[in-house]
Amino acid sequence: MQIFIQARGFDLSAGLREHVERRIHFALDWAHQHVHKVSIRLSDLNGPRGGEDKCCSIQVVVPGAADVLIEDIEPDLYIAIDRATDRAGRTLARQVARQRERRQGSPRDGRARNDAIVEEAESTSAASS
């Protein structure tokens, strides 16, 4: 899993870089075999004017599926990072679960289809008797 971190409008300190990497690993390490690349863009939307304007955008590239795109804006950049990474982890978990269901087919769906076929066959044979 490749991690790219970019800061716009301010310098990326070593402490901030470590925080981002730690949070990304915590949220996404379980899915390292599914994730090709993670891009994190940190920005201060209003610059020195202040306000609720620290943005953390995360793009998780998953081969064979749509990218996971998450954005969070908060007054505190660390909170924006924490919330965005948590959401990215949950969103990726849902996406991986859906991919597994599609590949394997839901066992309930298969049983329901088989039951419907059996019922149809029984009703057809009963009607023809």
- What class do helices, strands and sheet pairing give? alpha+beta
Largest sheet: 4 strands, mixed
* Topology as a string of helices (H) and strands (E): EHEEEHH
Shape: elongated
Strand arrangement in the largest pleated sheet = 1-2-3-4
- Tally the beta strands: 4
Number of helices: 3
Give the low-confidence spans.
none
> How much of the sequence is in beta strands?
15-25%
Give a short synopsis of this structure.
The chain is an alpha+beta fold and 129 residues long. Helix content is 50%, strand content 23%. The termini are far apart.
Can you put this structure into words, describing what you see?
The protein is an alpha+beta fold and 129 residues long. It is built from 3 helices and 4 strands; from the N terminus they run E-H-E-E-E-H-H. It has a 4-stranded mixed β-sheet with strand order 1-2-3-4, with helices on one face. Helix 1 runs parallel beside helix 2 (77-104). The model has no long low-confidence stretch (mean pLDDT 83).
Topology:
Blueprint: E1 2-8, H1 14-28, E2 37-44, E3 54-61, E4 68-74, H2 77-104, H3 107-128
Parallel strand pairs: 1-2
Antiparallel strand pairs: 2-3, 3-4
Question: Main attributes?
Answer:
129 residues; 3 helices; alpha+beta
